[in-house]
Amino acid sequence: MNAVTSLRDQSNEFPFPGSVLELGWWGVLPPISRDGKRWWLPLSDTAMVAISTAISGSDAGWRDVNPLVVSRVTSAFLEDPPLLLYALLRWPGDEFVSATELAEWFIGAAPGEFADGEWILVAPEVTNAHQHRWSRLLARSRTTEPNEWLAAAAEWLQVLGPAIDSDWIEHLPAVIWDCIAEPKRKLEGSRLLQQWARARERELVAESSLSALAEKRKLAAAKQLAYGLSHEINNPLANISARAQQLAREEADPQRQQSLQQIVQQVYRAHEMIAGLMFFANPPDVDRERVDLNALVEAAGEEFDAIAAEFDIRLLAETLPEPAMVTVDRAMILEAIRILLRNSIEAIGSGGTVVLSMERVEGPSRDPQWLIHVADSGPGLSVEASKHAFDPFYSGREAGRGLGLGLCRAYRVAQLHDATIRLSGGLAGCVATIAIPD
């Protein structure tokens, strides 16, 4: 009995159709090296065709390749866990990557990855037992989504390699499936429906992941800008402020002295903007304690009474009759309320009304929440301004609401407390609401 016949006779032992050889293990991919150790992933029929296509389509280079070649490689990623894991373990970028971006990089890198034949000489012997283990893992992958394959990465690698550091696998890049493979036309109706449902599910996950990625990159950009401003601008600002204050003390002319004081005030305003951006990008730790939100609302209302009166604005503060106890950072939540009050007063300008109030909501479809509302009779927000109101330095001056840096600070406070903050149109003006979980 030859080896092929022997393997086919044993195929009933495994939960997949056909024999190990029929599933097509051609050998191994180049090794994954880390800390002087090597791991080898199998080379399947699917990977063989995809890599051949990638090599033949790599002439134009990364990010400038035939879309059909990109589509074939992304389809292979969706069908072949070892190929996807190999590409992710080689990927030189950050913790998020779209399937299209990964395929474009793989196509450009393929000739260099496979041209060196030395790795073939040191590759380990692949036995029937190894192929059986790969086949079991492949069969199991058919019942899960590609995003779940990363959880089995260690099992694939340890077939031909030492034990895996779990921390390494946990930091594999997350894949955003922006390119969904076309379902196979010859599938049975029920199976076809499942494939379509899974494709749509991947699209929804991709949309969510892209939003998370955009938010993450926005925070990273804000942090980089904040550190740059802090180091490169704060020191000159401090020197300008010190010099202006010194000149003001020595100046006898009241008009010139007032001009110097304005310089100091503008420097302080610039410093506050940098501090606000630093808070948004890299906030301090939350110091939680049990707090009655009624007390915070009362304190904020009393603090802004005089400011509102100065601009002929009526400020009404309404609390609840029962305690509104939550575990929060008292100073941060109070600062968020102050920001919303200041934003409303600046939006009105003069001669209007601001109402600061509280509400408790609960029901079968939602967890209990405490709502803090700040409603004003100002000019309101346009649809476009409402989309960007919480972005750092977004200019909403057409709505009379400044640069939005304060609002992004309030938004960050809400994030740190697993709370939400939103802006909506009222009967006249705008309503800002902080929703804090009970």
From TrEMBL:
PROSITE patterns named among the record's database cross-references: HIS_KIN (PS50109)
Keywords of this entry: ATP-binding, Kinase, Nucleotide-binding, Phosphoprotein, Transferase, Two-component regulatory system
Domain Histidine kinase: 228-438
Documented EC number(s): 2.7.13.3
Record-linked InterPro entries: HATPase_C_sf, HATPase_dom, His_kinase_dom, HisK_dim/P_dom, HisK_dim/P_sf, Sig_transdc_His_kin-like_C
SMART domains: HATPase_c, HisKA
GO molecular function: ATP binding; phosphorelay sensor kinase activity
Reaction catalysed by this enzyme: ATP + protein L-histidine = ADP + protein N-phospho-L-histidine
Broadest EC class assigned to this enzyme: transferase
Protein name: histidine kinase
Annotated source species: Stieleria neptunia
